[in-house]
Amino acid sequence: MKQFMQTHKVYLTPLSPIHIGCGEDFEPTNYIVEQDLLYYFEPSKLNINSQSDNFRELFSLASKGDYEGVKKFFIKNKNLILDSYISNYQALIPAEFKNEWENKSIIQNRLEIERNAYLPHPFHQPYIPSSGVKGAIATAVLDYEHNKNSHIEREKTHNHLLEKHIGLFKDSDFRFIKFSDFIPTNKNVLSQVFYAVNFEKFEDDLGGLPVRRECIIDRQYRSFSSDLTFTQDRNYNFVYLKDTIIDRLNKYYISTFKKEMEMLIARKLVSKQWFEEILELLNGNNIALIRLGKNGSDSKVYQDKSIVRIKTKKEHKRKQKPIFETLSESTTIWLVKENNKSKEKVSFGWALLEFDTTSENKLLLDWCNKKTKPIFNRNEFLSLQKQKQNEIKAMQEKERVEAEAKRLAEQKAKEEKQALLNSLSDNQRLVEAKLAEWEKQEKKQFTVSPIFAEAKNLLEEAQQWNKEERHYLYEKIDPTKPNEGLQKYVDGLSGFSNLKAKSAVEFKKLRNKLVAE
After folding, report:
1. Which of 353, 346, 331 lies closest to 136 in space, CA to CA?
2. Cβ proximity of 154 and 307 under 8 Å
3. Where is the CRISPR type III-associated protein domain (predicted)?
């Protein structure tokens, strides 16, 4: 039976750092740095007591728009994030970045980091969207078709090819190619913050000011995989096949790679050895070179420079309207460095695709293993984090249950007290009111205590009460029980029965008269 669909397994190995933007940045107010890791967090998930000094300080800084102050607050209080385990995304950082984050200003040094595309909860890993891969293939296919039809008027050729191969999805040939997203093949596929520096192509310079980008770390062997599916058109023919795509990719990207490396090696911006090692990796079957993500315009346009139109900004004075010019190629190129002081640089975005592989690519594996990569076991980290989060949730639930039990007990005690008060006579309620009042007053020696004097006056007044009320007062202000009765409110009553002070003797007589028959 004839196949109406062909599906191929595709593995991707980054040959140089890859940055695929997602429209988000790591802002210096929503990440912290500890050791060699950046911890991203959502500030709204901070577990800070609204009555605490930390909450008041952070609220004040945020209300004033003092972002530098907010950053310093988190530098000072990193444990609010680390101990609560609210960070659900981590990226590796170069050693020097921690110092930049702690000591440099947000305004002057722009500590934002361009974030890479990522898989949300529960994965929290970088990934490569299929749209980016399909776009890179489209560029290679259009360039090939243009070269086949270069004798036709250029503008018409371009418009025709664009409509045929990309155009509206329902009409384009690319609807017969279906790529799934390139998903990490293991939980330890890593990203890192790199420095991106812009260099002039055709004149010597030291490069512009670096910007920071989170990138997928290079040389992670077969770190991403995808399924590539080809379907048939209405005539039951395959418009594209695997070998066609491999051929178009290699024709375009190997040529682009060689031209770019020739210029960079001449400028002494990249290593010739790195270039030669990459070329050696391309000598195999079912292998294709591709370039992905943010890497400049030269790998996104036709190789025929006579039809390329790239709008570039000429140098201009500050506060003047910029002047643009149209050129056949860009005049600058972005290169990536692992740290800001490193002299070693490589190009952005190069990757190797392997189709339907059935065995290890030893040459590629050995090349990947030659580079020492940071050690960070994300799987172990996330497992520990989940365990800690569950422990925190269990503790919070226990505290909630205990707080609720305490609230119910206090409510019950309050209700019982109210029920008791309702059952008391006016004089008995007067006694309870006095005890509550004394609870709030300072505890002093009985000889100078206003509470002791007031209790003595109450004894004198109570001589006229009925029997039940007198007995009630007798028990409530018993001065002989340690830490109970009157001793809760007055000092110096230990051994009360033996006290010889005049006030103590008079107090004993008045109290005993309450129960005398």
Report:
1. 353
2. yes
3. 12-282
The packing angle between helices 130-148 and 154-161, to 10°, is 140
**Are the CB atoms for 21 and 115 separated by under 8 Å?**
yes
169 — pLDDT class (breaks 50, 70, 90)? very low
pTM for this predicted structure: 0.73
Residues pairing with 232 in the sheet: 238
Domain spans, the chain: 5-16+124-186+196-202+222-371, 383-423, 427-517
Q: Which pair of structure tokens corresponds to residue 297?
A: 């315009």
Closest CA to 450 of 467, 462, 438, 436: 438
Task: Give the per-residue SS3 of 388-414.
Answer: HHHHHHHHHHHHHHHHHHHHHHHHHHH
pLDDT tens digits along 102-153: 887 766 567 889 999 999 877 788 999 999 999 899 889 888 887 876 554 4
How crowded is residue 414: how many other Cβ atoms within 10 Å of its Cβ? 10
Residue 90 near residue 39, CB atoms below 8 Å: yes
Rounded Cα gap, residues 161 and 302, in angstroms: 12
pLDDT in tens, 441-462: 998 898 888 988 998 899 899 8
CB 510 within 8 A of CB 463: yes
Structure tokens at 100: 């930049």
Bridge-based pairing of strands 5-14 and 490-491 is unpaired
Instruction: Residue 215: count other Cβ atoms within 10 Å of its Cβ.
Output: 27
3-state SS string for 488-505: HCEECCCCHHHCCCHHHH
Strands (E), 187-275: 191-200, 211-216, 224-231
Element holding 287 (H helix, E strand): strand 287-291
pLDDT of res. 294: 83
Contacts of 292 (CB under 8 A, 6+ apart): 18, 20, 128, 132, 133, 136, 349, 351
Q: Within 10 Å of residue 120's Cβ, how many Cβ atoms?
A: 9
